[in-house]
Amino acid sequence: MRTFSFLALAAASLLPGLAAAQAQPTERNLPLWEAGIGAAAFSTPAYPGADDRNHRVLALPYLIYRGRVFRADQNGIGARLLNTDKVEFDVGFAGSLPAHSDDVEARRGMPDLGTLVEFGPRVKYKFADLGEQGRLRFELPLRAVIEARSGVRRQGWTMEPRLVWEKRGEAARWTMEAQLGAVFGDARINRYFYEVAPQYVTAERPAYQAESGLMLVRTGLFGTYKLHPGLRLFGFVRYETYSGAANQDSPLMKKNTGASAGIGFAWTFARSQERARAAE
Fold it and tell me: What ranges in the chain are assigned the alpha helix state H?
């Protein structure tokens, strides 16, 4: 069960779009569950503000489950506790991959950054239906950050208010989603990324004490295209700025901006006959 949960979490969090979201009014027509395999290649900064990058290729199995409460889909794994025409409230997971300090010049000699799992509540407010021009919603996730590296430990909290625009083609053959948001972190998560303790000081890396506050502002675009019912392509681009961040003076903050991009596919090879039931 632990292995299955990790694979499902990784698929949902690290390969966004393994199965693209369907419009809520048509959810009753979708299978209750789908299983498949997805693969993606992507490039991201090693951490926010890093001048070194991570280039990864992942291939993972995934499971989508569209229960009335429990959900495992492109938005992550969690429980949807409230769903109305305007407001949705859920509790879920997100995740990010590790960065080894030997591969990041600014952090050489410092502890590695482990795999991070984020868990917590999220509120969605659907405030505008633009018809053929798409839909607008506001999201507010509040997440506890858990690090998995030689054990499991909590590494603080993050909050990411964001505005989301989404549009879907006929029969969900294609989807497009754009986001604009800001990430705020408490002192602990900012120390995790940006603090330099006395034992890690070098001639090029002075001591630094990190503080809570703004981590970054980012915008991104994500899209999918269905080649046939069992195969969907997806891609994303994301741009971040760290200007005005609470810890932009840290010696570990090497750049004022960062960009990420990725492309991949999802192939569904099994699905249930039972259909999903949208929340009443």
Answer: 2-14, 187-194
